[in-house]
Amino acid sequence: MTTMHSSEQAPSGGLTDPATHKVMANAIRALAMDAVQKANSGHPGMPMGMADAATVLFTRFLKFDPRHPNWPDRDRFVLSAGHGSMLLYSLLHLTGYEDMTMEEIRNFRQLGSKTAGHPEYSHAPGVETTTGPLGQGLGNAVGMAMAERHLNARFGDGLVDHYTYVIAGDGCLMEGVSQEALSMAGHLKLSKLIVLWDDNDITIDGAVSLSDSTDQLARFKASGWDVARVDGHDAAAVAGAIAKARETGTPSLIACKTTIGYGAPTKAGTSATHGAALGDEEIAGTRKALGWSAAPFDIPEDVAANWRAAGARGQMDFDAWVLRHNSDVQAASFDIAISGEVSSDLTAQLNAHKKALTEDPKPMATRKSSGAALNVINNVVLETIGGSADLTGSNNTDWKGMEVLNADHYGGRFVYYGIREHGMAAAMNGMALHGGVIPYSGTFLVFTDYCRPSIRLSALMGIRVIYVMTHDSIGLGEDGPTHQPVEHLAALRAIPNLTVFRPADAVETAECWELALKRKDGPSVIALTRQNLPLVRTTYTDENLVAQGAYELAGAQGDAKVTLFGTGSEIELALTARDTLQAEGIGTRVISVPAWELAGEEWFKDDGTVRIAVEAGVGQGWDRFTGSNGGFVGMSSFGASAPAKELYKHFGITADAVVAMAKEKLKS
Ligand SMILES: Cc1ncc(C[n+]2csc(CCOP(=O)(O)OP(=O)(O)O)c2C)c(N)n1
What we know:
The strands form 4 sheets. This protein has a 6-stranded parallel beta sheet with strand order 8-7-9-10-12-11, with helices on both faces. Strands 1-2-3-5-4 form a 5-stranded parallel beta sheet, sandwiched between helices. The chain contains 24 helices and 18 strands. By secondary structure, it is α/β, with parallel strands linked by helices. The radius of gyration is 28 Å and the shape is elongated.
C-alpha cells in the first residue's frame, strides 16, 4: 500500500466545475497563441489541443508546490512533446512559479529568457528536463519512474512516493526510442508512470496516416501497459482515466483524442497550427470561438485566482512531507542522496585501491580495471545504479554482491537494460534529473552512436550520467569493423560539456571513475579496452593525475626533443617508442592524455619539440596538442576483422611507426 496524500483524493470545490475548467484551459490557449504570435515563432497547436487534459492534470492530480519546486517528493511532469513548450510555460506561470513571470511569457523564445523555444532544464524551476528531440522525454520519464521506485524501496513511502506524468505526441510515439522506453517500463511494471498521448492525428507533414498506421494502444498493451482512450476535451473523462491509471499495477497510456489548435476557426485540426503563429485574424476568430475576450497576456482575475488555487493545492502535502521528513530516521541519508554529494570516503577507498594495484602490478584490460574500481565504489557510494545493455560480462559494470533492480525488487542497484542503448541512455538522463541516484551503464563504444541523442542531452543539461563504453578500438579484434570504433572518440569529444575519459591502465581507470562520480555538472564517457594493458602508473601517488587532463607520464632523459601524446592502449606504444628513441640519445617524453577536456592550455603551446600523438582512432582534433607541424599515428579508415595484434600492425599503429615519424620530423 502506498500512502494517500491529500492531492490524491477527490478534488474539492470549484476547479472541477466544467465551466470553470473550460475558462482555465482557455487561459492556456490564449497565452500559447499570443506568445507565439508575439515571437512570430513557435508551436501553438499542441498547447491549444492539450490544454484541457493538462488543466485536469495540474488542477486535480499533479502533486507539486510552486513555492518548493525542488521538493524531492513532487510528482514529475515531463512535456515530451517539447515543441509545445508554451503549454508548460503557461502552466508554470498560471500555477504560481515565481520565476515564470508574464514578462517571461512575453519574451518567449528571446535571448536570455527562461522561455526558450523548447523547454530547457535549469532555465526555470518546474522544467524537469530538456525536451524537443521527440521521444526523449518519454525515455527520461521511464528513468524518473525507475528512480522513484528505487528510492521508495530505499527510503520508504513517507519520503518517496510520487507519480511521473508525461505528455507525448504522435512524434514521440513514432520515434524508435519510444519502443525501447515503453517496453522497459512495461517490463519493470512502473505503475506510477502515466502517459497522456496527444492523439490528434496530425504531424508537420499533415495527417499521421501519411506515414503511420500503428495501433498504438495495442503496441503499449503488448508490452504490459494498461491503456485507455478518451475524448481529450472532456475533462471528466480525462480525470476518470487518470484516476483509474493511478490504481493499476502497470504503467498507463491514456490516448487523449484532441483537436490540434482547438478553437482556431479555420486552422484547428490541421497542421497549419502545428508550428507557426496563427495570425491576427485567426487569433481574433479563436478568441471569439472560445469566448475569451481578455487582451493578449491579460488573465482575468477570477481565472488567475482559480489557477493560483490549483497551484496552492500541494501546500498541505508539502508541509506534511516536511513533518514526516523531520521525524524520519533515514532523513539524513536521504538528504545526502538528494544532495548529489558522493561519500567523502570515496577518495580514501580509491587511493587504497590504487596503492594495492601498484604494489602488485599486473596486466589488465581497462574494462576489468573498471570492474575492480566498481567493486570499491559501489560499496562506498550507495547512490549508484549500474547497468548494461546486454553486455554485462563484457562491460564489467556489475560488482560483487550486487542486487538486480527489477519489478520484484526495486531496491536493487543493477539494471539489465536489454538491447536498448538509446532507451538506456534516455532513462539514465531521467534518473539523474530525478536526483537521489547516480546512473552509470555500459555498452560497446561503437554503440555510443545508438546513445548519442541522449548523451548530447546529458551534456546540454549538465547532468551526471556516466557512460561506460568498452571495446574502445581495433584492439577488440575479431569482431571486426562493425564493432570497432574509429571516429567515436573524436565525435564524442566534439560534444560540448562531455568529458571523455580514456585511461591507460588500472590506476588511471580508478582516477577517471573518481572524477566522473564527483562531476556534478555534466556527463562522462569512460572508454575502456577489451585487451590487456600493462600497469604504467607504477609509482603510487594519492594525487589524482587524470584530473590534470594531460600529464607527463615519462620525462625525457636529457633535453626533450620529442613529445609523445597518447591515450589508453596506445600509451604502451608511446612508452616503447620513447625507450627506442632514448636509446638513440633522443630525449623523449610521454604525455598521457586521459581527458582532453581537462587539459590546460599549456599543452597546446609549441615548445620546440617534435610533437606526435598516437591513438587508435581518427586524428581529428589532435593537432590541438601536436600543432600543425606535428604528427599523428592512428586510424584513417574503418578497421578489419582479425586478431588485435595483427590489426595494430596492419594499420601501422606501432611503436616503430611512432619512432620513424619522430625521426623523420626531427630531420625537417
Ligand atoms: C527527433 C526529432 N525529429 C524531428 C523533430 C521535428 N519535429 C518537431 S514536432 C514534429 C512533429 C510532431 O508531431 P506531433 O507529435 O503529432 O506533434 P503535433 O503536430 O501534434 O504538435 C517534428 C517532426 C523533432 N523535434 N525531433
